[in-house]
Amino acid sequence: MHDPIKPKAPFTLKHRTIKHLGPPLKATLLPMLLGLGGCVGAWVDMPVKQESKTAAHQQLIEHSRLPVITRTEKAAPQRQWCGTTLWAVIVPIPLKLPVCESYDRAAAYGKDIDGVETPLLYSSQKIDSDFYACGPFMFLAPLMHSYQGNALCGSFR
After folding, report:
1. Residue 138's CB: how many other CB atoms inside 10 A?
2. Domain chopping of the chain, boundaries
3. For the segment 64-111, what is each residue's pLDDT rounded down to a tens digit?
4. Would you say 86 and 95 are in contact if contact means Cβ atoms under 8 Å apart?
5. How much is the pTM?
């Protein structure tokens, strides 16, 4: 009988370590690994509405009457980009659409306690931007004046 030909073992890197790599590769690999510390973040741009109630609105509430809005006047609204931008290490991935609306001033009218039409609410809407991040070096983030969070995750305004 004859001996069957033994198949070659598949190539493995089990004996290779980082010390077997050449100096140029080591010089680029180390800073790259240090830079990939697992930081992720998202820049979020969303509309924020601010409302203020007038004295006429307060009078209706004090007299246990429900304020009824009959009409609204709004300054010319502007279409704005909103959504989020994801940050994976240092690469931004924008996920935004021009579907949000912002305006400087809007007035909601209704009848006051005497039945006269008057402004009951004033409002404005703007796009607010917050940056949310998580990573191993977030413990340094409180050095920034606008940081809110802990040593792992937080937000910047």
Report:
1. 18
2. 38-156
3. 999 999 999 998 989 988 888 887 767 778 888 888 999 999 999 999
4. yes
5. 0.56
In this structure, which amino acid lies at residue 122? Y
Q: Is the pLDDT of residue 19 over 80?
A: no
Retrieve residue 39's tokens: 């930081």
Letter for the amino acid at 98?
Answer: P
CA 34 to chain CA mean position, Å:
25
Token pair 């931007």 in the structure block, residue: 129
Count other C-beta atoms under 10 Å from residue 85's C-beta.
16
Q: How far apart are CA 123 and CA 145, in angstroms?
A: 29
The answer to whether residues 129 and 84 touch, using CB atoms and an 8 Å cutoff, is: no
Q: What is the largest CA-CA distance in the chain?
A: 114
Extract long-range pairs of 9-18: CB within 8 Å, 24+ residues apart.
none
Whether the CB-CB separation of 31 and 24 falls below 8 Å is answered with no
Torsion (CA) 53, 54, 55, 57 in degrees, nearest 10: -60
Rounded to 5 degrees, what are φ and ψ at 43? -100, 120
C-alpha span between 135 and 109 (Å, rounded): 48
φ, ψ dihedrals at 40, nearest 5°: -135, 155
